[in-house]
Design a protein that fits this description.
- It contains 39 helices and 16 strands.
- Strand 15 (507-511) and strand 16 form a beta hairpin.
- The longest helix is centred in the C-terminal third of the chain and has 21 residues, at 690-710.
- The radius of gyration is 32 Å and the shape is globular.
Amino acid sequence: MGATLPTGTVTFLFTDIEGSTELLRSLGTDAYDEVLVEHGRLMRGALREGSGGREVRVEGDSFFVVFSSAQAAVAAVAGVQRALASTAFPHGANVRVRMGLHTGEGRPAAAEAGADYVGIDVHRAARIAAAAHGGQAVVSASTRSLVEDALPEGVSLKDLGTHRLKDFAEPERLYQLVVDGLPAHFPPLRTLDRTANNLPEQLTTFIGREREKAEGVRLLSDGTRLLTLTGPGGTGKTRLSIEIASELLERFPDGVYWVPLGPLSDPALVVPTIATSLGLQDLGSVPVAQRVAEHLRARSALLVIDNFEQLLPAAPVVAEILKAAPSVRAIVSSRAPLRIYGESEFPVPPLSLPEPSYGVEALTQSEAARLFVERARATRPDFEVTAHNAAAIAEVVRRVDGLPLAIELAAARVKLLTPEAIAQRLGHALDLLSAGSRDLPDRQRTLRGAIAWSYDLLDPPARTLFARLAVFVDGADVEDVEAVCGPGLGADALDVLMALVDHSLVRQREVGGVPRVRMLVTIREYALERLEEEPDARDVRRRHAERCVAILEAVGPRIFGPEQKTVLDRIERDAANLRAAVEWSVANDPTAAARLLRAAWRFWQMRGHLQEGRLLSDRVLAAIGGIDADLRAKAIEAAGGIAYWQGDLEAAERWYAATLEHWRGRGDERETANALYNLSFAYLLPQAEQRRLDTGRAALTEALGIYRRLGDERGIANVLFGLVNLAPDSREEVDAAGENAREAVALNRRLGDPFALGWSLHMRGLTDLFRGDPRAARDGFAESLRLFHAAADVSAITLVLTDFALLAMLDGDVARATRLAGAADALRERSGTGLVEGALDYVRTQRVAELRYPGDAEIAAHRAAYDEGRALGTEAAVAYALEDAR
């Protein structure tokens, strides 16, 4: 590099190796150094040769180069890309370099400044490079305007649309440099507005369906609002819907959202499930359909709703959502159309079959045969297509009518059988199927035959276990399978389960280090039919409900101890089984239903499932009139807790009052004190009338007297926390609240209850603020936030983030307060309740609260900070809040 850097209008180039840290880790330091040397040699040669590029600086694998000519910069980058693509790097390293070009003002820094260039254009160029992927070169609109009429031969520009770059308020139009012969397709740019999506990751390749995928993309691009992919189970509707959605990511800037309905059986849970997929897990007392519609009304988004067939009565809610949100579209997979206005039904055909020649070459032209071969190789890596087995492979895929699931089941058999043997056995199963139900579509009868064939290969214990496994809605831990399905099996349940995994009828994976198994939805449906034929089906369902009760009652008490997050995670992975157990128990075992409600409600509250919890608790309460009175009171108490956290204080007061009446009548002092404590919270929310505050204070005072008489420290700590919630109106009341808060903190710290300790610290922090001691308040809020973060208690995190927003406002840092308010509001939308919303309003100053509402003058001034806060996510928001709490 010469002594003088170019000035005036220049073109900046930033480059670096994508995944360099992982490359270093995999190769080792010495080998990576060799790769880095070759990379540097290649980059310098290509960038300097005839380009006039000046190397400004090099940091590791990153290059910063400046050009006096935009055309020269583009030509140099094209040369670099060609050189990289044709170079064999040492040790077989895959070196993928991302590049960013931007033309702007070149202002070298003064020598004493310790920098090379200064000015906004340097930062813009660096952000453009950071948005690219390995192997991709991205250029700004300013660079494009200078080179579009003078591009090198074999080079073109692809418009990538407008994107928001980090630290820049205005969007930037970006273009991709396309070089003939080199890859031209990359994932969406890594910019702030990259389309959000939760599409499930696919672990196998997508074979065929190119015509169907293209047609689905065309329909949704041309104005179709609702595209329903129909066909029997196993046709590949789900996978096709994911592939279509993946192609459309860039067309829906507000997100593409996967909504799995397979575990559901109740149409009332469709809208809550959509809300969860949108990140609106807990909607408080606002009707969930209304909140979903409000959220989507002004957004351009795509819903990908899977397995709707068992929930068709809920189809009108999809129409209502689309009507309320004109820029939202939906792909639905279902065995039957939804039959609602605006629906375009798209029957998904089988995979294409081989030509009659059945030769090796003909197989490569068949989607069905290609799928069989690939899945067979996944089972047996040495599997090969030969002239000897080609005809048998073609026969297998033909006999299952090209249905993907049936093909995969058949291909799994190559572990034990040749394709010829598979064809023979499959043919026998199809013959048996021909006498099946005539009202089923032919392809469904074929799929049923394929699954029946796999089932027929099982020995009696495996068949029994296969049927019993259907009781688990969304899989189960292996030990739960043994407990529910093992009794009377006649063989070791674990050995039989392994046989089902080998037969590809059950899939196994680890969740949180624990082995877990599950069935595909279509296979489980077949297993359910077999379960209903089992003489002990009712006993299996009873054991399933009892197992759910046992799990909850075993781990539930530990929710309030140091294992809080582990316990909540354990319950979370069986949420679908818990739902099924409650539904079965309501109709068959009201006592079990009451025990489930009593044990599950805290999980629903902490993990953002209150809408579902309320639906199930209402059903439980309607069914338990004749059970043991004490247990019924406990179930009613749980329902009161759910209603309270939703902000439905009328229902909470009614149910808490009923439990108080019961325990007073029983003469049980401890339970009476607990009921008084619970009931008090129906009166203590901010802005409550003085009469209600007095009622709440009286209940807490009575409860405290009982707990002190009983020597119950946990009860005392709870009541002290409750007393702090009484809004103090005088210095004496502030001092009393502070004393109660400090005593509650000390007791809960000694008792080792992180949940109660976190809330006590929160309230102690507020009393410290009332006393004019923000430093002490910050310490309390910080410890509280760390506790709630460790437990993934999002509703609590939301509230404490608002505590920090208040602190920032009192410190005069409006931007920080606004950013924290934005983070809190984003979390509230995903998991907040009516209760939390009231608390947010209570702890905010009016000025911070106003920043939340569009149209306000202050929001206009601080919108960027607010949006940054909303985009932080839970982890980053917590880290940001704790920055000034060290």
